[in-house]
Design a protein that fits this description.
globular, four-stranded antiparallel beta sheet, mainly beta, seven-stranded mixed beta sheet, 11 strands
Amino acid sequence: QVQLVESGGGLVQPGGSLRLSCAASGSIFSSNTMAWYRQAPGKRRELVATITSGGSTNYAAPMKGRFTISRDNARSTLYLQMNSLKPEDTAVYYCNIGHYSGQLYYPWDNYWGQGTQVTVSS
């Protein structure tokens, strides 16, 4: 069974940067699409970015140009570099394994980490 463990969250001022990591155990990391999601208080969980096993990336519109998703298959680790952070980026960030069907990403239900809190505030 794959376990996903996020880290790297914290408190940062507006305009600052953070780098999140998601360490995966198990053998399916390198062959599957990975994603970052986030959930702010009182809001639905939303997709932040995805990266395929081949390294193709996609971003939600509010994150384009500010966030970068990457992966290190040798280390079974997913990353999210977040720059120019805004208060509205405050949320719990989760990593996930899933797949694309056409243009849509489908998260796998049993492949979520516990999340890491990101708070952007002065």
